[in-house]
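name: query_chain
kind: protein
chains: 1
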Amino acid sequence: MNLPTACELCAPFGGAWMESDSGLKRCQCARGRALADSAKPKSRPPVLSAEACAVFAEMMGAIPDFYPRTSGERAPIADEISRMCETTEDALWLVRRMLRLYRKWPGIEEMRLVYCAGRHPLDGAQALCASRDYPDGIPSEREGTPQAAIAAPETKRLTAAEVSAAPSIRETVADLVLATRMPPVIRPIPTVRRTGAITPEMIAAAVAESRAKKLAEEMPA
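structure:
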């Protein structure tokens, strides 16, 4: 790009900036104005067809609450998608992000905010609103799906019988349950009568002996 010659104010700073009371800023000379214009995002016309964008707007209808239900109400959403997304991959990415981030339709402005957080919009217009659902900023894709946007799965509690058909494994599961339960419950462990002090090694040997005996009983001869 051929730029005008730097003036005396911006020449000491490479012809790109001038000094001011608040620090460096773009010079107001012809060269500075040309640099400022070149840095502005360029608006490009839509690439995706209106029919394709209508399909993407329809897909976004999987957002459970308050999403527009008629084609007329969804037309502005499809139009905004066409203004932002350059490829079908961009549009699919936007649909997936919206479905993962929201249980309630946040509006077109926040949809643009989500897109601008991960892509450069085709029309060059950045989102000017703040997110009501994410005041600290749109979560990054690495953070995964926010817990507030999905229903917590119901935890299924398995019984010992559902864990395995082998009695020794069920017995082990029962031991773990009892060991982690509050207050702790200690199951009686079969031991051999011995004289003298009982050591941890003796207890471990008794447990191993009991488990080996049970396993031998369950294994076919």
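note: Confidence is low (pLDDT under 50) at residues 147-156.
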